Amino acid sequence: MSSRETLLRALLISWFVLAVPAWAHHDEEQKLLPSDGVAGDQFGWSVAIFDETIVVGAPLRGGIGAVYVFVHNGTVFVEQAILVPSDGAAGDRFGNSVAINGDSIIVGAPLADASATNSGAAYVFCWDGVSWFEEQKLQGSTLSTNDFFGRSVSISGSTALVGAPDGSGSPGAAYVFVRSGTWSEEAKLTAGDSTPGNLFGHSVSVDGNRLIAGAYAANGNVSSTGAGYVFVRSGTTWSQEQKIFANDGFVNDNFGISVSMFAESTVAIGASGDDDKGISSGTAYVWKRSGTVWSQSRKFQGTSAGDLFGGSVSFSYRSTLIGARGDDDQAQDAGTAPVYGDLGSTAVLANIFIASDAMPGDNLGNSVAAGSCFMIAGAPKNDELGTDAGAAYVYVLAVPLVTVRNGTGVNPLCMSTTVAPIIGQNWDIQVDASAFPTAGFTQILACVAPLANPLSTQWGEILVSRPSGLLFSSTVAGSGLNLHSIPVPNDPFITGLTAYQQGIVRNTAFGLIQLCNAEDVRIGCHPDD
Questions:
Q1: The pLDDT value given to residue 144
Q2: I want to staple 327 with a disulfide (CB 3.0 to 4.6 A). Which of 55, 256, 336, 515 is the partner?
Q3: Annotated domain spans of the chain
């Protein structure tokens, strides 16, 4: 095979995405504070994110609790609303848990005396295009004293899930509600092997027709190591699909103290009491589903005693964000929030989010939430507005950036990016083949790395390193000005990644006519202002 044929074979490829050998996150921090925060509020105890809306719980604000809604204005997050319950009472801990999906927010108040003392309640708020309003108060059908309904909440479309772990020693439960005009209870779920005090429902997460409920005091491979229970819905009936637990678990690992389900196919589970790296150093696991079988895929660990790594978890696309509120790297119990990227065959530590103004006891990572462009960690004991007033930190991932790479000037400037690659949007690239009358189509290749030195050929310079790992290929037929419009996956894994792309003009016989210039392109979330 000739060198020309070899090159053609290497270049004639179709669209696909491969594992990338390096993570290139560039992030900026924004510290969120409530407009009316005072000592003791514990703003940041809970956090949630959907698209460009962030929800932060402050369960001790005003003695009742409150929830703050922030929206991105194109530059920063700004406070949009403060949510409080219509019938709140002192000690309810409204905001102990929060979740958001679309235009709906659900808030847990586990110490509300709705049905009995500390039976708990949950509230759904909706956005009507102008403001947030309280849509409905949710209560389980069989609640009693100290059920703590609302200790955990989750929402997916028209399905809401509320955990009631029961602090009185009885087996816990999780309640499923569905919206059809109003919200109604669809199911009360318990573990298939329910035992008193298993704390089933301490953590919950639902996505589509699957959910997981954590029971961190349940029996796993040994007594009281903790477990997670996955349920699947068929019609209106929920059935337990699998009980999952760590095969290397030990007593009081707290496996299931936090859970996060994504796309019905992946769950992250925290085990903050694991002692592998020291007492309560903590561990987090990722499990993936194949058919109806769930298997452990990843295991991440804290580094030191007392980290409480895994006390909170959030999974988004291929990113696992983990809270370690007891981490001492910045200061004692200042906390951190590491994020790991899934590379297919392996996983890497992508970043460790910290507070730029970290202080002892802030507990950053008490809560975490991962989105495609933003990641957030709550620090409920931050003291900027007063002792334990609280704060939350948003990590804004990279903005897009395009620079031209033209080697020694051999290549013509026949390729240009007209719209910078923004995650979740289309990336528009033009290749001008008008100078080549026999052109039949144009191609664009994007790889992970450039060549150290341009490789000159009779067709122009090769500027990208094809063996480094192909990100994508795009082909458009026709002569003249060809527009390549490529959808950028809404995936935080590729946010901040720098791709190196080169344009190619071919004739109708698939012969190479000309190599265009190249570009260095950083995939981002928002353009620089």
A1: 93
A2: 336
A3: 3-18+400-522, 28-397
Total residues belonging to the chain: 529
pLDDT one-digit tens code per residue, 118-132: 999 999 999 999 999
Q: What tokens appear for 174 in the block?
A: 């999780």
> With 0-12 CB in 10 A as exposed, 13-18 as middle and 19+ as buried, what is 412?
middle
Confidence check: pLDDT of 441 > 80: yes
Task: Give me the long-range contacts of 251-255 (CB less than 8 A, separation at least 24).
Answer: 251/222, 251/223, 251/224, 251/225, 252/224, 252/225, 253/220, 253/225, 253/226, 253/283, 254/216, 254/226, 254/310, 255/214, 255/216, 255/220, 255/225, 255/226, 255/227, 255/228, 255/285
Looking at mean pLDDT, say which of 160-169, 210-219, 491-500 comes out highest. Answer: 210-219
Q: What is the pLDDT of residues 39-92, one digit of tens each?
A: 999 999 999 999 899 999 999 999 999 999 999 998 899 999 999 999 999 999
The rounded distance, in Å, linking the Cα atoms of 352 and 476 is 41
CA 114 to CA 122: how far, in whole Å? 10
Q: Can you say whether residue 35 is alpha, beta or left, with left for phi > 0 and alpha for psi between -120 and 50 degrees?
A: alpha
Distances (CA, A) of 503 to 195, 413, 417, 447, 474: 63, 9, 11, 12, 10
CATH class name, domain 3-18+400-522: mainly beta
